[in-house]
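User: Fold this one for me? It's Gb|AAD49762.1.
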Amino acid sequence: MLAGLATCGFMMNIVSRASDLTQDFKTGYLTLSSPKSMFVSQVIGTAMGCVVSPCVFWLFYKAFDDLGLPNTEYHTPFATVYRSMAKLGVPRECLVLCYVFFGVAILVNIVKDSLHSKWGRFIPLSMAMAIPFFLGLYFAIEMCVGSLILFIWERVDAAKAEAFGTAVASCLICRDGTWSKPSSVLAVAAVNPPVCMKFLSSQTNSKVDNILQGST
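Assistant: Here's what I get for Gb|AAD49762.1.
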């Protein structure tokens, strides 16, 4: 388990740096910045972090005896979360599902690129389909609201919509996104969702069905 958690932390840092660099490239494209300068800046910042971060951790480790322990001032809640995830593991056929979805994504992209633009535009992009899996279902609400705003904007002023539409969409989606405001209002009003979803094993599910049938 320790080896898996250490590898997880190592890979998360690598993927996080690559993701940040990709986002920086997108921002640089919008602001007409030099990709080379952004890459060099990222390398310098990462190199500094490799020195500064261990030093800061070592200072905290030497200064506080209870560093990282639960119910302390400097606890590590994510450590408990990741340890619990490592104990649970993944479903038995998880790797097979990964292979299947990877192959389907490649096949969809090949078909989309092979067809003429007249028909290829009706085939969805695999990358766009994958976004809600990472960001959550609320992303569909943001896309619907954003598309409506862009549709009205194009009717009112097509030139400005073409020039600033991407930047405005990035602002609405970045960080917590548009849905965070209605979600906060619903949380303050103590509104509970009308639907509850739970995933159970087949054995537990059959027991629940028997209990429900007996109660009726």
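One thing worth pointing out: The chain has three domains: 1-89, 92-135, 137-216.
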